[in-house]
Input
Amino acid sequence: MAAAAVAGSLTAHDRRILTALNTGASSLSFVGSGFIVLCYCLFKELRKFSFKLVFFLALSDMLCSFFSIVGDPSKGFFCSAQGYSTHFFCVASFLWTTTIAFTLHRTVVQHKTDVEDLEAMFHLYVWGTSLVVTVVRSFGNDHRHLGVWCWTQTGRTGKAIHFITFYAPLWGAILYNGFTYFQVIRMLNNATRVAVGMSDRAYQFDMKALNRWGYYPLILIGSWAFGTINRIHDFIEPGHKIFWLTFLDVGTAALMGLFNSIAYGLNSSVRRAIHERLDLFWPDRFRKWLPNSSKVRNQQQESELVSLKVEDQQ
Output
């Protein structure tokens, strides 16, 4: 999706480099996201509400990466369809991260237990918003293809609408996630300090997991910071493309699915499920190469998503 808006005045050689970069990075994201989707489908113990949100995030990333890999299927209808689909699923991806942040905040900070009842609202919010901004983006846009990419924005109106329908909600999601995780981590840090003072291990949490939550908003920032700068530069100086900035834009945006699959998907529950299957089917003579199974089973589960609840200490 990022590549479609940056190829305007680049040379044929530059476009070939960006094509290879986009295909390679999107393929990594497709594989990483597809692995999380496969784990959710294969392992019944993962089909909890908390991981279901991660599943839809990975599914959106997988489809976004797929349509990015497809490139320019042909002129006309298929080219426009590719552009619409990529925009739709990329928006859905970062919107699903806000539902995960909301779920954590509602469970940990507000002590609510009704998050599963909000699943229908989550779907309406994510898919509905993605559809609206994708349709709105078609206004002021010239539907044509350039090289292997579809959907080239032409004119200031089209570029402004592109920014409003993608980068504005994107940075809104980043700010919301950052504020929400800050509140969650602060809440749990305070609870942990109280528990340590009381020598109450029941309220002591895995600080490694808590610190990891703080990096979640950085995934979106790292994936789209260069793209945002590139869009602003292109709006100010439309006739001057900076290749290195475009290179970073395309590469980091295409890797978003891989980053999300590692951060959100490869949690302790997934690793435990994979290890149990390997331990079950792996030949005995090779089991010495696996980590100690009893150690993994008895390992304290990381504090993850909805499974972590801070009880009222009153």
User: Anything to note?
Assistant: The first helix runs from residue 12 to 42. The chain has eleven helices and two strands. The two ends are 50 Å apart (CA to CA). Confidence is low (pLDDT under 50) at residues 293-314.
